[in-house]
Structures are given as structure tokens and as C-alpha cells.
Amino acid sequence: MGTLATTAVMDPAISGFARGPRQAAPAPGRDRSACALARKLDGFAPLDEQDRAALADLIGYVRPVERHTVLVEQDSVADHAIIVFAGFASRDKRRASGRRQIVAYLIPGDLCDRGVLHDYSLDHTIEALMHCLVAKVPRTAYLDLLGRHPRIALALQRARLAEEATAHEWLANVGMRSGTERMAHLLCELMERLGTVGQVTDGQYDLPLTQTDLADTLGLSSVHVNRVLQALRRDKLISLGGHRLRILAPRRLREFAEFEAGYL
Amino acid sequence: MGTLATTAVMDPAISGFARGPRQAAPAPGRDRSACALARKLDGFAPLDEQDRAALADLIGYVRPVERHTVLVEQDSVADHAIIVFAGFASRDKRRASGRRQIVAYLIPGDLCDRGVLHDYSLDHTIEALMHCLVAKVPRTAYLDLLGRHPRIALALQRARLAEEATAHEWLANVGMRSGTERMAHLLCELMERLGTVGQVTDGQYDLPLTQTDLADTLGLSSVHVNRVLQALRRDKLISLGGHRLRILAPRRLREFAEFEAGYL
DNA sequence: CGCCCACTTGAGCTCTCTCAACGCCTGTGG
DNA sequence: CCACAGGCGTTGAGAGAGCTCAAGTGGGCG
């Protein structure tokens, strides 16, 4: 972990991890990396200090993973929960042709505990879309956490409802919006979600995804994604460069995409 | 209920309700209408006689609803669970333009208990796509049922996982398949789901949906749905008329759609 | 009998895709 | 230190899937 922060060029994806007052050395315990998860859960159900401390303790399980690392294999039953602390991971499906559909993002603070809670196999793969910080929490430790912290368990359940709603929203997005609208909607959603974990400043956030990733998310070709982004830039709705996204006209963007944040 | 069975022309949607040995008069208690739910749940977790009896008792809450009836309004918190016994209902979203996206079907045996379990408002509308038989089970009665019958509660939880997986599958369907493939995939899924509740015979089942419904499900125009269906007929994969669907070449259809039933 | 709704068919048009090429940046190896 | 390969973003052009508009058919219901 310490080594990660000193990686030659800081991947924008990771920057959220160490945001805020810069820490010379990683300060364990009250580390900001637990922040995303705590902030998110706190939004669903207020946590107390003990809950927060328990979440902070999860840092012990955090480790960096390379881009394209498969975190949970399709059709397997994971014996641990996956928690993303920095970077984006995806839930994706693939066709025989190799074509990929990303059905969800796991952004900092998101997690997957399917295997642990239900020991049901997953119908998709979970994969790091970039260099990430991910905690793999063993089943027993995870169940223990839920058992001791009912507020966390409650918040996680509500988070799961939001995830479900997001899946529906994505389906509606791909099903009834044009390419440009889809992109706008996705960018609005990400602003909202990243905002709740403190990774949006001044309508700006890091968008470390590849245009191909976006394409596989929105059901478009990467070429078309490129043009769609240009259209949004031309209309002065966003500015995007070096994986840094600026929402120039939030209201107009939301109206254009018919984005309603209620589902999150 | 009794009156429904004598409705002038029997809607194909309802036929599954009274399928099997025809009953002169509705026989309460061991009525086949509870069958769909019991069969489905039994597939997720084996039920015993008491569980079955409890499900059969739900018949008291069943009532017919007209097509287009809104069962749960968007943004409302339902104080009852919705259980579909016959016919199809949909979860759908609408755009300002009036365009609709169906994000899920509720077929016989399916239910929605979001409001009851979480009192969270729904991000979509639940609506009868045709004349249906639907039970509205009050919160207390529903919670009581779950409390007294842990096997049912377990089965319902697993059913919810399958629902989630289905949403992902639909997203992948719309995101990376052609119109014809999407339709084929949907028809395969429905064969599977209707099969588990005993509504498929000889590769045939009632498909009481409108082409417009199918269009709004698959993210296509109704005109194109029409042509897609013709293509499937031309290729001798299906035959469809009078809302009765025959899968002529199940294996070929599944291969064409790359359908894997695992997620259900 | 007539209306309404679902299905059908045709034609032109648009959005999006595919193929292809090129520039840029980065990491790698000589 | 430089050459090179690979990945990503960008641009152009032609092709194709799917859309919209429009008209017509047919069946069920008032």
C-alpha cells in the first residue's frame, strides 16, 4: 500500500484514495481509505464511532490489484467479500464473440458480498478496470462484522436496494436513450455516486475509464463513444481530458439526460 | 374470481390459472392458482405441507385486475405485497416523451414486496399488462407469513437473487445483442420461467404480450419487433399466432440467442 | 355497423457500426 | 538515448440495423 502511493506516475484512479490533507506517511487506523465506505454507508443509515472503527479495521485486508485482475470469477462462489477502496471495478458479462457488457461499476465504497451471504455463484465476472485498492474480507470476518454492527448491516441492505435500482436505471438508459443521452446520464450518475464518497470537487471528478469501457457500459462502439463525448464537449456540457471530467453545466446536463438522482 | 372464469372470452393470459383438469366450480383451498407461487418457491427451497397450505391461503387476497391497472405507483411506498397469480405485470419506467421501458416482468408466481420489507419507495411503476389475477397481501399478513415459514422466506430471498440476475441479463441483452437475438433470448427466458410454474406444454406457451410490450421490453420499435418475429418464424425457430407461442427448435433458438438458463 | 386497437407492410432516413488509418504517449529493450 | 511496440484516442467513409412516418388490414366490442 505504501508502495502504491509512490508509484511513478500517480494513476488518477487512485488519487481519490489519498485526497484531502496530504499524508506524508500512510496513517493507519484513521486512514482516509476507509472513508469512502463509511461515508457511503453513513448516507444509508447513520453509523456511530464503533461502526466507523470497525470499517477502518478493514484496511488490514486492503491490497492493490493490477488492472484486468479478475476479482471474482463467473460461476464461482466467492468465500470472501470484495470491497473497493480506490479505483473502479466492473461486473461484466461476455458473449462468445468476445463482446463485453458491463452491468455495473464498483466504485470506491462499493462491495460485493454475494458469495458470502448466499453462497450462490455469480452470473458475471468482477474485474478491476484499472489499478485498484481492494479488500478481500474472509467470510467469517465479514459475517462477524455484520453480526456486531447492525447499523452497518442495515446500511448495506439499503445499498443493495440502490444497486438494484441502478441496474434498472441502466437498462432503461440503454433501452430508451440515444448514445449521447446515455453518456450524459452515466456521467450524472457517477457525479452523484462519487460525490457521496467525497470524490467530486467543483463539479469535477476523475473518470479513469477507457472509452472502450464506456462503450461496453453503454452498449455503444468505442468509436461512437468518442463522437458522443465530442458532442457533449461541443455543447459546452462537459470538458474531459486526461481522465479528468469537468461538468460545465450540471443542470443542463441533467435535463438533457433526464437524470433523476432519486434511485441512488 | 368466480366471475372471472366465466368472462366472455377467456384471455389466454388467464388460461394458465385454470389449466389442467378443468374445475367446474372454483375449488377453494387446493386451488391450482396458488400453484405457480408454490412451484416456483419450491424450486428455490423445498417447502413442506404447512408452507404450501399457507401459500394456498393467500387466495383470499386474490382479485382480478384490468389491463393497465397500476398496482404500485412510482415513488410510492406500498403497504402490501403484490403477488401475481395469473397474467403478466411489468415494472416499467417512462421518459418525459412518453417512451416506456419495461425493466422486468412479473409472471405467475412472481411478486413484489419492496414496500413491505424496506418501506422504500419504488423507482418504477408496477402495472398489469393484461387482465390479471393479483393478490394484495397486507404488510402484517405478509410479515406474519415470512415469520412463520422460514423456508418460504428463504425461497423468496433466492428468488430475489434470480430477479437481480435477470435484470443484469436483460441489460446485457439490450446492450450487446441484435434485435432478433434479443427477442430469441427473451422467448427462451420466458419458456424457462413459465416452465417452472407449469405453464409450458410441448414447447408451447401463452404469450399474451402485445408487440408494443415486447418492443418496450427489448428497446426496439414495435414495427421492428414485428419484423424480428417474422424473421424467427421464417427461420422455423418459432411459430406465433393468437398469442400462442410454439418453440419449434428449442436448441437452435437457444444457441442463436446464446441463452444460458443458469441465472434463473 | 363502426370504432378502436393490434398487427402488417412499405419507403426513406438516421443513428450507430465496422473498417481503416493515423497520431500520441508510455513503457520496453537494445 | 533512441527505436519500437502497444494501447488509447481521433478521424474519415461506407454500410447496415433499426427508426419514423404512413397507410392499410383485420378482429373484437360497443
TrEMBL record, chains A, B:
Gene Ontology MF term list: DNA binding; DNA-binding transcription factor activity
Keyword Manganese among record annotations: no
A Gene Ontology cellular-component term: cytosol
Coiled-coil regions, chain positions: none
A Pfam family assignment: HTH_Crp_2
SMART domains the record matches: cNMP, HTH_CRP
UniProt keyword DNA-binding present: yes
Record's keyword terms, sorted: DNA-binding, Transcription, Transcription regulation
Residues covered by the HTH crp-type domain: 177-251
Protein name in UniProt: HTH crp-type domain-containing protein
Record organism: Methylobacterium frigidaeris
